[in-house]
């Protein structure tokens, strides 16, 4: 499986809520660069992140477009997040089952058949506006 196939499979697992499938495609020392906050390094922290996200959000990604660079190791993707805010996340807006549609993007790096970096970007103030309306 090439890097693009690996990343597409990763997002397929995301959309089918196959968290173990997602984790199986990550390197042991995965670098997870979140939109807000410090990077998380390693599978245990990524697993914690997925558990937290699963508790607070239900999301499907649509309109996915993938881009690769010449070496094929780095993949960028643009997508739309279609979500339901299920449980209040920390000090964010209280959750009441709000639905949201939010543009987002990610950058991933693959080496030896495993994803070594996931960097995700979205507009947090827009998300807050959407779930506050």
Structural summary, described in words:
The structure is a single chain. This protein is α+β, with helices and mostly antiparallel strands and 133 residues long. The protein has a single domain, classed as Nuclear Transport Factor 2, Chain: A (Roll). Helix content is 32%, strand content 43%. It has helices spanning 3-15, 19-24, 43-56, 124-132; strands at residues 26-33, 40-41, 57-68, 74-85, 98-111, 114-122. A six-stranded mixed beta sheet has the order 2-1-6-5-4-3, with helices on both faces. The protein is globular. The model has no long low-confidence stretch (mean pLDDT 96).
What's a concise summary of this model?
With 133 residues, this protein is of the alpha+beta class. The protein contains 4 helices and 6 strands.
Backbone CA Rg: 15 Å
Through-space gap between termini: 43 Å
Provide the low-confidence segments as ranges.
none
- Domains counted in the coordinates: how many? 1
Helix content: 25-40%
Structural class: alpha+beta
